[in-house]
Amino acid sequence: MTAVGVLPDGVTVLERGWLSSNNVVFVDAERAAIVDTGYATHSAQTIGLVNEVLQGRKLDRIVNTHLHSDHCGGNAALREEFSSARIWIPPGDAPLIAEWKVEELSFLQTGQECERFGFDELLQPGSSIELGALAWQVHAAPGHDPHSIMLFEPRSRTLISADALWEKGFGVVFPELAGEPSFEEVAATLDHIDELRSALIIPGHGRVFSDVGAALSVARKRLDFYQAEPERHARHALKVLMKFKLLERSRLDFETLQAWWNGTPYVETIRKKFFESESLDELRDDIVAALVSSNNARVNAGNLVDC
Ligand SMILES: [Zn+2]
């Protein structure tokens, strides 16, 4: 019997930050596995951290909750390090991954990086996967990403929630910004999390937490706010995208910033839908100002600097 509120045996959570998602590493007598692999530019660090946990063991399974660059960006490097590891992904984007259709995957749209990887197995919602000698149920979690899944272990009531629920919110609702109404899906996924009565949540970002009721209440309030004022959600998304690029590079000179901004299809998609009266340049300046005033960035000698 696993104690409530304590991570099951053999589970290690590597809390990473915001550029790289958390990594959940499972080790048991039979095999070792990882759920989510961080961002591409952190791959060497990810491999180092994983090897520390594995203590000479090899990795057998690489599992992704969803295929955003901060959750699957270490897949290629980990597969190179552990050549016999099999990669498990949610089925939704599998055809795009198989042919690496970058125009349709999120990486190019959001101006982010991800090294090409393939897959071996699919994580079908309704099935389960053995990780750390326990059977983890695969649950669909549409909203932030239409094809995201979560993993739930019923004995310890532990939920790996990906970006569907964090301690203080949830990930940007990307499909909504591209004109696919998805706030209702976020609400349904939050209800589903509520029904699971989890004792412990391992989120995609931030620390492990057990006050699920408080997190759900924060998330539902934020969702209500975004539903009432969708342009606030759109502006938040642009801030998140620019901050992510800043986390990746630490500093951006304005030429690089402008080239990235103008060359990122999602930025123009969002501008057209929500801020058509503003030019791309005006909108960029607004978002820079918003990051500076919220202490997420500062301007120094012609550079936008992360802080
Ligand atoms: Zn995500």
Class based on secondary structure composition and strand pairing: alpha/beta
| General shape | globular
Tell me the major beta sheet: 6 strands, mixed
Which CATH architecture of the largest domain would you pick? 4-Layer Sandwich
Q: Any low-confidence stretches, pLDDT <50, length ≥5? A: none
Number of strands: 14
Would you tell me the overall average pLDDT?
95
Main β-sheet, spatial strand arrangement:
1-2-3-4-5-6
CA radius of gyration: 19 Å
Tally of distinct domains: 2
Can you describe this structure?
The protein is an alpha/beta fold. It folds into two domains: 218 residues, Ribonuclease Z/Hydroxyacylglutathione hydrolase-like (Metallo-beta-lactamase, Chain A, 4-Layer Sandwich), CATH 3.60.15; 76 residues. It is 40% helix and 19% strand. The chain has twelve helices and 14 strands. It is globular, with a radius of gyration of 19 Å. Zinc ion (ZN) binds next to loops.
Features:
binds zinc ion; six-stranded mixed beta sheet; Metallo-beta-lactamase, Chain A; 307 residues; globular; five-stranded mixed beta sheet; alpha/beta; 2 domains
Short recap of the structure:
This protein has 307 residues and is an alpha/beta fold. It contains twelve helices and 14 strands.
Q: Secondary-structure blueprint of this entry?
A:
Elements: E1 11-14, E2 23-27, E3 32-35, H1 43-54, E4 61-63, H2 69-72, H3 75-81, E5 86-89, H4 94-99, H5 106-109, E6 121-122, E7 128-131, E8 134-140, E9 149-153, E10 158-162, H6 174-177, H7 183-196, E11 200-203, H8 212-228, H9 230-249, E12 251-253, H10 254-263, H11 265-274, H12 280-293, E13 297-300, E14 303-306
Parallel strand pairs: 3-4, 4-5, 5-6, 10-11
Antiparallel strand pairs: 1-2, 2-3, 7-8, 8-9, 9-10, 12-14, 13-14
Helix pairs in contact: 7-8, 8-9, 9-12
This protein binds zinc ion (ZN).
The site of zinc ion (ZN) has 7 residues, from loops.
